[in-house]
Each structure stands twice: as structure tokens, then as C-alpha cells.
Design a protein that fits this description.
Length: about 350
């Protein structure tokens, strides 16, 4: 025998969903007129439209957007694949993509990829195709082995952010090389000759391009560039590299760090050593993080317009979805923001 608590009560009957026919009868119009209103057609008289909308509200009618999308061949959705959710650039770019897509009436599906490999990227593309997206934005930020094999999207429009411009894809990115030139030239114009670069991870496209531009700018100025040191974008790695610099026999008079977080750690290590910034060593960062002006001292840095990168990438993808021709590469320029962490060269430090 079942106890009282075991007796299953019948579920209340669900209300049937109102149909176009129900709305048409309620409003006293044809089903075709209701369909036109639901699809926002313009060939409906305002008073008729108001009457149909009132009937929709009264009956709780909701247009079947999925059916409309299948009919039009559009899902009003874009997919975003990224290798990291923790970096400043990716976070701001994702925010801009989501906002721009929403403004255009599109939803956004995000798929983080743990390992930047062909297999994992292809798998992410496949999952997005199954979820019925109209196009994909790939925020690359790291090298993928044999990137030419990325053509695995079954013909879906693809835009890549932060990538190698030599790839045969539509790319939107910050002009990394221009930013690195601005940073290096700023230090050279202040009289610095011993300028050290602290790069980001070896797998990062942006780190690679910034380092290459630094080396080219030093060479063009007739200056010898010391070996590039490397961090992992974090302030902790900046502290470690900064201590390594402070322990060297021939400390530089200026350091160009590939991002603001590493610059923060480097300045921390210099303060530990008793060096003044910029009195003893000037420091330049890259990104213009929100709190860069609050660093001690306020950080001279390169401003990246991540919001514009995200907006342009989304606009480009939506244009491709509409079948319009699109440029292969779009680089967003950077700006040098001069603050208190850089100054004229003063002299050689003792180790």
C-alpha cells in the first residue's frame, strides 16, 4: 500500500499555446495578416496592426521564431571561440562582441577551448555548427598548429581576432606592431639606448608581433637590442623577470613590457631593489588597463581599443553573413599614453 506521501497527484493540464489561427479569429482578420504582423511586414495598416498585437497579447501568442529562422535560413546567432577568458584583451573583446551582436538582434554562444590545437578548434567549430549559428568569431590569441587546416566550418563565415595576417581569413586586430613601435620610439626619443623588452608567451601572436616590432625599431635606430626576456602576462611573472633584471651586471635604463600586468610586477621588483621609476629606470607597458593610471608611478602604456576590435569583428561577420564582400584584414590603431613611469635617461645603474 502506498503511503500518503507516495501518492502521485496528477499534473495540471497545460494550456494549449495560441496559434496564428486563434489570433486571426480573435482579431477578426486573416491568418496571413497575423503572419505579416508577426514578421514585422510593413504592408499592414496601423489600426489593423494594433488590433492584431492586442489579440496576441490577450491570447499570450508568441511568434515561432525558430520556424521563421528555418524558413529564412538564418538562426540570428553567432558563435565565439576563444582560448582564454582571463586576459584583459579577450575579456573586453568578448564584451564588445556580445553587445554588438545583441544590438543587431543576434544571440552569442561562447565556447572556450582549453588547448589551441587543430583538433580542439575543429571540435569547437563542429559543436557550434550543431547549435545552428550563422557565423563564427575565433579569438585566437595563440598559435594553432597548421592554421591553414582551420577551414572546417562547413562554409560558415569566419572572422579571426588576434592572428597572423598571412592567414587566408578575414582578420580584425589591434595594430600590434604599430603599438610596439610607438613604445620603443618613445623611450629612444627620451635618450634611452639600453632598452630591454619583456615579451609575453611564445605561443601568443600579439607577443610575437610586439617583440618583432621592438627589434626592428631598435635596429632602425642603430641600437643593439639585448636578448628578449619572457613572462606569461601575469604580474607575478613580471616580478620574477624584474628581479632577474635587477640582479644583472648591466641593467637597462628602460624596459618595454608587453602588457601592463607584467609592467606592474617589474616596477614592484625595481622598488624592492631600491630603484626609482623613472629616475633610475623607465618602464612602458601595453594595453592601458583600467587601473594603469593608479600604478606607482602611473604607467606610460599603449592604449588598445578592444571595444572597437570587438565591434569591427562583429560588423564584419554580420556583413559576411549577409553575403557582402569584406576586407581580409582590418587593423585598429593604438595610441601612446604618456604618464609618470617614463622620463629622460639619467645614467647607468650599478648592479
Amino acid at each position: 500500500m502506498m503511503t500518503e506521501t507516495e501518492i502521485q497527484k496528477p499534473e495540471p493540464a497545460a494550456h494549449a499555446r495560441a496559434s496564428i489561427k486563434d489570433v486571426a479569429i480573435h482579431a477578426g482578420v486573416s491568418a496571413q495578416t497575423v503572419s505579416r504582423v508577426a514578421n514585422r511586414a510593413t504592408n499592414v495598416r496601423p489600426d489593423t496592426r494594433d488590433k492584431v498585437l492586442a489579440s496576441m497579447k490577450a491570447l499570450g501568442y508568441r511568434p515561432n521564431s525558430a520556424a521563421r529562422n528555418l524558413k529564412s535560413g538564418r538562426f540570428r546567432s553567432i558563435g565565439v571561440v576563444t582560448f582564454s577568458l582571463t586576459t584583459l584583451g579577450n575579456e573586453r573583446t568578448l564584451d564588445a562582441v556580445a553587445e554588438a551582436a545583441s544590438t543587431a538582434g543576434y544571440t552569442t554562444t561562447l565556447l572556450p577551448v582549453l588547448d589551441p590545437t587543430q583538433l580542439d578548434v575543429a571540435g569547437a567549430f563542429g559543436r557550434l555548427e550543431e547549435q545552428a549559428v550563422d557565423g563564427i568569431i575565433l579569438i585566437m590569441s595563440a598559435e594553432v598548429e597548421s592554421p591553414e587546416k582551420l577551414q572546417l566550418t562547413a562554409g560558415l563565415p569566419l572572422v579571426i581576432v588576434d592572428s597572423d595576417g598571412s592567414q587566408p581569413y578575414n582578420i580584425v586586430d589591434t595594430d600590434q606592431e604599430q603599438g610596439a613601435r610607438l613604445a620603443t620610439r618613445h623611450l629612444i626619443e627620451l635618450g634611452h639606448k639600453d632598452i630591454l623588452h619583456v615579451s609575453g608567451p611564445a605561443i601568443s601572436f600579439s607577443a610575437k608581433r610586439r617583440a618583432e616590432a621592438y627589434l626592428h625599431t631598435m635596429k632602425a635606430a642603430g641600437l643593439d637590442a639585448p636578448p628578449v626576456l619572457r613572462g606569461d602576462w601575469t604580474a607575478a611573472s613580471g616580478v620574477a623577470v624584474g628581479r632577474q633584471i635587477a640582479a644583472g651586471e648591466h641593467p637597462p635604463t628602460a624596459v618595454f613590457a608587453a602588457n601592463d600586468q607584467m609592467a606592474l610586477g617589474i616596477m614592484h621588483a625595481f622598488h624592492e631593489r631600491g630603484w626609482q621609476v623613472p629616475g633610475d629606470v623607465s618602464v612602458v607597458g601595453f594595453d592601458d588597463a583600467e587601473d594603469a593610471a593608479a600604478y606607482w608611478p602611473a604607467l606610460t602604456t599603449i592604449h588598445q581599443n578592444f571595444g572597437e576590435v570587438g565591434k569591427r569583428a562583429t560588423a564584419l561577420l554580420l556583413s559576411m553573413i549577409d553575403g557582402k564582400a569584406a576586407p581580409k584584414n582590418k587593423l585598429i590603431p593604438t595610441d601612446l599614453v604618456v604618464r609618470s613611469s617614463t622620463g629622460p635617461v639619467r645614467g647607468q645603474l650599478s648592479s
